């Protein structure tokens, strides 16, 4: 089967004129969602591990609820319903940022909870014996070790998050995939545009995965 591909479509002009703008937003969204997700995910993990039902119950409902709904549905719900609640539009980019932070917090919460639980109880007891409060023990003893243990998993989740940024096409945000789509429509080459998008995502994600594996090996050696 001859697809009659136009290989001249794969050029620097394609990236400079259409893709780079979307790539910047995809990377920005990935970075902001990762930092926000880790921050709120850590809070959710601490709530679930606190042993206090008034903290455990809402955190558990939130995490399990978010993890049970497809991300694209959350994006659409927030984008369509929030303007009706507040009485004004919030924009596709802002909606994507808020949605991704809220959604990823649930996943990072489970990663952090596993990391905290992986710390030997003797470390916690040692901190308590020194007179540390629960907050001091977590901040100074448990969380630093948990972050180091979970760093490869956190970075892997970040790579998945970068791939998921392509879902913002559903609300019209200009991400990397949107750039390829617009280029394909302008030049009448949709097949080439999606092939270029797939290749670009593969190269970026494969390179990041390779770096995560190298980092994991270094952490294992340090241990």
How would you describe this structure to a colleague?
It contains eight helices and no strands. It has helices at 12-49, 53-67, 71-86, 92-117, 121-129, 134-164, 176-187, 190-222. It is flat and about 70 Å long. The model has no long low-confidence stretch (mean pLDDT 89).
Radius of gyration: 21 Å
Topology as a string of helices (H) and strands (E): HHHHHHHH
Specify the number of helices: 8
Task: Please count the beta strands (DSSP E, at least 2 residues each).
Answer: 0
- Work out the helicity level: over 70%
Cα shape: flat
Spans of at least 5 consecutive residues whose pLDDT stays below 50 are: none
Distance between the termini: 54 Å
Q: What's the gist of this structure?
A:
With 223 residues, this protein is an all-alpha fold.
How is the secondary structure organized here?
Layout: H1 12-49, H2 53-67, H3 71-86, H4 92-117, H5 121-129, H6 134-164, H7 176-187, H8 190-222
Helix pairs in contact: 1-2, 1-4, 1-6, 1-7, 2-4, 3-4, 4-6, 5-6, 6-8, 7-8
């Amino acid at each position: 089967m001859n697809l009659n591909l136009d290989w001249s479509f794969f050029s620097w002009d394609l990236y400079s004129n259409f893709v780079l703008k979307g790539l910047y937003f995809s990377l920005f969204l990935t970075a902001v969602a990762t930092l926000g997700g880790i921050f709120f995910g850590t809070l959710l993990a601490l709530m679930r591990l606190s042993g206090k039902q008034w903290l455990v119950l809402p955190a558990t409902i939130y995490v399990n609820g978010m993890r049970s709904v497809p991300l694209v549905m959350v994006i659409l719900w927030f984008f369509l319903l929030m303007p009706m609640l507040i009485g004004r539009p919030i924009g596709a980019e802002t909606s994507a940022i808020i949605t991704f932070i809220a959604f990823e917090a649930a996943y990072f919460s489970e990663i952090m909870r596993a990391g905290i639980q992986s710390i030997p109880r003797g470390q916690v007891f040692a901190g308590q014996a020194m007179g540390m409060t629960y907050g001091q023990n977590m901040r100074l003893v448990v969380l630093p070790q948990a972050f180091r243990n979970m760093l490869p998993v956190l970075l892997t989740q970040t790579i998945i998050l970068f791939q998921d940024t392509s879902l913002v096409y559903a609300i019209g945000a200009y991400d990397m995939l949107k750039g390829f789509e617009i280029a394909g429509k302008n030049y009448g080459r949709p097949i080439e545009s999606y092939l270029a998008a797939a290749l670009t995502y593969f190269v970026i994600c494969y390179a990041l995965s390779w770096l995560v594996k190298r980092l994991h090996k270094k952490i294992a050696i340090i241990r």
